[in-house]
Amino acid sequence: METGEEFGPWLARQLKLAGKTQAELADELHLTRAAVSAWVTGRSTPRPTVMTDIARALGTDVGTVHTRTTDTQVGLPIAWYHRPGHPDGGRELGNAAAFAFDADVQVLARETCQNSLDERLVDNGRPVRVRYTLHELTGEKLDAFREAILWTDLFPHYSAVSESAGNQKVGRVVDAGVRDMYEKGRLVLLRIDDYNASGLVGDDYADGKFAAVVRRQLESLKSTQGAGGSYGLGKATLWANSALGLVLINSTLSVPHEGRTERRLIGRLELPWREVGGQQYAGPAWFGRPDPDSLGAQVARSWWADEETVDRLHLTRENDEPGTSFLVVGAHDVASLDEKRSDVDDEAVDEDGDEDTRDIARMHRRLVEALSRDFWAAMIGGGGRPPLLEVFVRSFRNGVEVVAEEQVDPSDMQPSRTRALRAHFEGATVDRLTEAGQVAARGVPLRLPLSGGARGTLGTHEAILLITEAEDKDGLKNQVHSLRGNRMTVKNTTVPNLPVGTNPFQAVLLAGEAAGESAPFAREAEEFLRAAEPPEHDRWGQTEELSLRWSPSAYRRINSLTTEVNKTVKELVARPKRGDRAGGEALRKALTVKTRPKAKVPSGPVAPVLDDIEATVGEGGEWRIAAEVSIPRGDEITPMVPVALLDVRSGGRPRLDWAELVAVEGCEVEDGVLRFAPGARRARFHGATDVTSHPVRTALTSLVVELRADKGE
Predict the structure, then answer these.
(1) Are 508 and 481 in contact (CB under 8 A)?
(2) Highest mean pLDDT: which of 5-9, 84-88, 622-626?
(3) In whole angstroms, what is the distance from residue 418 CA to residue 377 CA?
(4) Contact status, residue 15 vs residue 49, Cβ threshold 8 Å
(5) Which of 57, 112, 409, 647 is exposed most, by the fewest CB atoms within 10 A?
(6) Helix runs in 276-348, H state only
(7) Over the range 406-426, which residues count as b (16 or more CB within 10 Å of their CB) and which as e?
(8) CA dist., res. 631 & res. 627, Å (int)
(9) Start-to-end CA span in the chain (Å)
(10) In sequence order, what E strands does 127-224 have?
(11) CA distance 77 to 71
């Protein structure tokens, strides 16, 4: 028989829930108060015969008293607690963190799978196992689920939001979700389960993983240095993908809390400000056991549920391995409408002829695509290294499987990159590609800056660049996938200006702890690159954290890394030059070609000139430029500094910082300075400004770009 919490703490909480004192329990049991006090403090335990009397007094069965794996059902029942409106009249019309992401199951997959990777239990050497389950409910199954979540208590709040839906975005989304459930008689659940993860450990309110996910915003408490997340925003994707703003949680803990580990449940609802029954509510609500220690026992806290309750809430886990299950109630995938599709499945179109954002077959397919694209490297093992991750996707309708479960296989959708990483793990790489199927490896330097704005270099971290021939299943060719510690794809770029006739290839850059813990400055590079990622974790570049912890120019080290990567790729994929042939030499000698005398090369340094520039406004509001430089003949080419300025009618032009400066051809970028190849006559570079340095909105400005001679500043 499973035994949970120690008897004393368990009994103390049951008395609070039942509203009983130790003296009142002692009177009902015809015992002394000292005897009950001894049980609560752990000095003694009741005899088996007394256990039956305690169960009767608490209104429960004797098995619950013996096992103590759940609370009694008397006193304070499971209920919804809605946060009251602010006394000062302030209103939040939605969770701002959720607006950082679209309602996109592919974004949800990226953020949730990253979180599971970050919480993997590493001591046992096993991968974290993540399963995505889509489940469409209709008819009696839908009615039973609504009863389990106390829908009749929630409905007045949804009605209040729907009445004001025309005034703000969140209300319109919620109104559409409720209407879809009633008009089409269905509800889509998306559950994300992870196993061999830490679980939501910690107190309901104090610092810990539970409070960071359930109670707080913009707090990230990660278990490892190489964690993917750092902003505390990723969890918001769960609520962003729920048309009802509702997520239920069941966690099995790796560290006991209140003496137990299994079936810790809580629910959180994200709605905008509303007024129900003459009372104002601030926004969020929680589904749980009223906390007897809160004022009026109103605030809901997590509770230890029984197996029947977990099953009714569709939160049953397959075993007792630590980890967490998140249930997104009313899942939808609005971003799927952006797909350029010439053919849409009949099942993905509703009766009005519109594409259905709640079609589970399409969501299933998009989940598999995203997971294989973003986490292929984490699923690969070799050379004695186990994979970090295993991922599965399955789909049901009313408990019947409609899309068979499939394990995401990186070798199926990423065959070339999988081959490259396995060869690296198994020590089977070569210096240069000479045969089909080979994988070449080279070291690429990342010069790490000193923190705190100090000038100089902390040291050089050697990232590992792998390159191999591309296959058709890889998708876009001539790409570089950049990874760090948790092996999630952070950056995916195309190598520019490849020589004509280059054989298609795929490349992988392993940086930070992904290059190996023994790599020089691996830990420092991991920390540096993590700080260089925005909340989307889809690139490395200028960020506020990078500027504050290192310096405003620290991003230039990443630009230099990009330049080195592109340069090394071109060296590895370049076709060897053909040697002179006898016939060709004889023909050359037989021909007489008149040549003009060489022009006299000017002595001294020459200054390159900005010859052509194209500028556009990026999605983030930044200026993006593609510039071409002409270089006069000379025996020395002056290094130049590209300067971005805002054009103004009067006064000095405000100078903008570069978030990205990348050499494309005929030059290199080093700490924001363009250095030109000897003998080059033309050069090209790309750049993007740092939006945080813009004094006004980009749409209201004009851009001026100048080349200034480097004075060694």
Answers:
(1) yes
(2) 622-626
(3) 7
(4) no
(5) 647
(6) 307-312
(7) eebebbebbbbbbbbbbbbee
(8) 13
(9) 73
(10) 128-138, 186-195
(11) 10
Tell me whether residue 405 is exposed, middle or buried, using C-beta atoms within 10 angstroms of its C-beta: 0 to 12, 13 to 18, 19 or more. Answer: middle
Residue 694's alpha-carbon distances to 620, 654, 702, in angstroms, are 12, 9, 12
User: Tens of pLDDT along 677-700?
Assistant: 888 888 998 999 988 888 887 777
Tokens coding 344: 């849409």
Residue in the structure block whose two tokens are 């510690």: 485
User: What 3-state DSSP class applies to 340?
Assistant: coil
- Count of beta carbons in the 10 Å neighbourhood of residue 151: 14
Residue pair 443/463 in contact (Cβ under 8 Å)? The answer is yes
Q: Looking at the whole model, is its pTM more than 0.85? A: no
Cα–Cα distance list, 603 to 625, 632, 675 (Å):
32, 11, 19
- Give the mean model confidence (pLDDT) for residues 638-649: 86
Residue showing tokens 């559950």:
191
- Taking a C-beta distance cutoff of 8 angstroms, is the pair 662, 563 a contact? yes
Burial of 590 (0-12, 13-18, 19+ CB in 10 A): exposed
Please say whether the beta carbons of 673 and 640 come within 8 A. yes
Nearest to 272 by CA among 185, 164, 125: 164
pLDDT for 96 equals: 55
**pLDDT tens by residue, 374-386:** 999 999 998 888 8
CB contact at 8 A, 362 and 345: yes
Contact of 631 with 688, CB cutoff 8 Å: no
* Consecutive H or E run containing 153: helix 151-163
What 3-state DSSP class applies to 479? strand
Of the candidates 512, 504, 518, 449, the one whose C-alpha atom is nearest the C-alpha of residue 475 is 504
Instruction: Name the CA dihedral angle for 118, 124, 128, 129, rounded to a multiple of 10 degrees.
Output: -160
Length of the chain: 713
Q: Yes or no: say if 300 and 100 are a contact pair by the CB < 8 Å rule.
A: no
Q: What number of CA atoms fall less than 13 Å from residue 177's CA on the CB side?
A: 30
Residue 481's H or E segment, with its range, is: strand 479-483
CA atoms 129, 132, 138, 142: torsion sign: positive
Q: Establish how many alpha carbons lie within 13 A of residue 638's alpha carbon, considering only the half-sphere containing its beta carbon.
A: 18
Q: How far apart are CA 515 and CA 377, in angstroms?
A: 13
- As given in the structure block, the two tokens for residue 182 are 């009633």
Structure tokens at 171: 């209300």
Cα pseudo-dihedral 338, 270, 218, 324, rounded to 10: -90
